[in-house]
Amino acid sequence: MNMPVEKPWLRVCAVDDIPLLGSRVVERDAGNVAVFRTAADTVFALLDRCPHKAGPLSQGIVHGETVTCPLHSWNIDLASGEAKAPDVGCARRFPVKVENGDVYLALS
After folding, report:
1. Range of the domain at 61
2. Would you say residue 4 lies in a domain?
3. Counted domains in the chain
4. Residue 44 has what DSSP assignment?
5. Phi first, then psi: what are they for 65, rounded to 5°?
6. Of 28, 41, 86, 106, which residue is the least packed, with the fewest Cβ within 10 Å?
7. Which ranges carry the Rieske domain (predicted)?
8. Which residues pair with residue 33 across a beta bridge?
């Protein structure tokens, strides 16, 4: 019988630690993770590397559920990590959950 494997959730910060329309960076050896907060208080997490030229998405501009890379203005969908047309590429996304005002990531 196969048992479902639980994701190891890691508390990274409080929601209020992430500015509205901003981000916070979680540093890790396998590549930093950018945690974004939209105006609607939704939280997303992507690898902090644009799929175009590896620009730091955490330094981009958040609008709606999109972040614009600061290097070449690629627009990346926060929910999927997909670049918006006409650009093509994808930033790795990470599962994120918010409980009692705290943000948790599944990094494995």
Report:
1. 9-106
2. no
3. 1
4. E
5. -110, 45
6. 86
7. 10-105
8. 26, 47
